[in-house]
């Protein structure tokens, strides 16, 4: 089985951290998210009525009413079609429904499994204080300067971590086979490693193999890759 990177939700450039229940893609291809964290990141107030299992989300003139188990919900008095789920004591709804119901725009980047939600600058984007430097395997990382507006590590800082990993890799021949052996350097908690291998063909051209690719023939099975790292 190929290991997938976790789903990420980024609101106005800031990644949302989910402390327990995590977003997932359901059988209909919809990205389901714990509604409270996304709604609050969009500046809305969230209320819960345990007796009726009803969630109320209010933001200015916008009001969304959700009832767990029903296949519909209400946005500003209009009934919409979707199913509200209760999992791990969290209320889940499709991220697009709640975000657009609060007037936000939603974009999905399948290659990095990330949902980007923007509100057109109506909400301030939190900015880490200058000088908030953390160190990972000797590499300085400052969220204020080393992360772009979409929550991605800058190219320059990514190269530092990649060079660090390259220094820790060796090629080993064992029983007639060659293996790549090494260790991943420590990186900031909000990021994860993904490994790819590029092969230059004698006939010309190049093939790239990775744990993250839409081309099945180029997938690296994680049961092979990670046992050597």
Q: What's the architecture of the domain at 8-118, going by CATH?
A: 2-Layer Sandwich
H-E string = EEEEHEEEEEEEHEEEEHEEEEH
Class of secondary structure makeup: mainly beta
Give, in spatial order, the strands making up the sheet with the most strands: 5-6-7-8-9
Tell me the CATH topology of the domain at 8-118: Copper Amine Oxidase, Chain A, domain 1
Whole-angstrom Rg: 22 Å
CATH top-level class of the domain at 8-118? Alpha Beta
Mean pLDDT level: 77
User: Counting H and I runs of at least 4 residues, what is the number of helices?
Assistant: 4
CATH 4th-level superfamily of the domain at 8-118: Copper amine oxidase-like, N-terminal domain
Large-scale geometry:
elongated
DSSP summary, beta strand count: 19
Query: Cα distance, first to last residue?
Result: 17 Å
Helix content: 10-25%
Task: Name the descriptors.
disordered C terminus, mainly beta, five-stranded antiparallel sheet, four-stranded mixed sheet, 14% helix, 229 residues
Q: Can you tell me about this structure?
A:
- There is one protein chain.
- This protein has a domain at 8-118: Copper Amine Oxidase, Chain A, domain 1.
- The chain is 14% helix and 35% strand.
- It is built from 4 helices and 19 strands.
- The strands form 6 sheets. Strands 5-6-7-8-9 form a 5-stranded antiparallel β-sheet, with helices on one face. A 4-stranded mixed β-sheet has the order 2-1-13-12, with helices on one face.
- The longest helix has 13 residues, at 155-167.
- The chain is elongated.
- It starts with 7 loop residues before the first strand and ends with a helix.
């Amino acid at each position: 089985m190929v290991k997938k990177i976790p789903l990420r939700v980024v609101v106005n450039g800031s990644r949302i951290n989910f402390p327990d229940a995590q977003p997932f893609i359901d059988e209909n291809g919809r990205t389901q998210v714990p509604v409270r964290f996304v709604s609050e990141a969009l500046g809305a107030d969230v209320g819960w009525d345990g007796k009726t299992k009803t969630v109320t989300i209010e933001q200015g003139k916008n009001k969304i009413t959700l009832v767990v188990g029903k296949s519909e919900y209400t946005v500003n008095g209009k009934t919409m079609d979707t199913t509200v789920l209760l999992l791990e004591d969290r209320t889940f709804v499709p991220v697009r429904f709640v975000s657009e119901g609060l007037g936000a725009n939603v974009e999905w980047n399948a290659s990095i499994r990330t949902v980007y939600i923007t509100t057109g600058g109506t909400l301030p984007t939190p900015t880490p204080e200058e000088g908030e430097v953390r160190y990972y395997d000797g590499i300085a990382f400052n969220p204020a300067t080393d992360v772009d507006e979409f929550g991605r590590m800058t190219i320059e800082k990514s190269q530092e971590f990649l060079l660090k990993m390259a220094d820790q890799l060796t090629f080993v021949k064992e029983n007639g086979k060659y293996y790549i052996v090494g260790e991943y350097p420590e990186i900031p908690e909000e990021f994860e490693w993904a490994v790819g291998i590029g092969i230059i063909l004698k006939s010309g051209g190049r093939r790239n193999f990775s744990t993250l690719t839409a081309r099945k023939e180029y997938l690296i099975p994680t049961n092979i890759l990670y046992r050597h790292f």
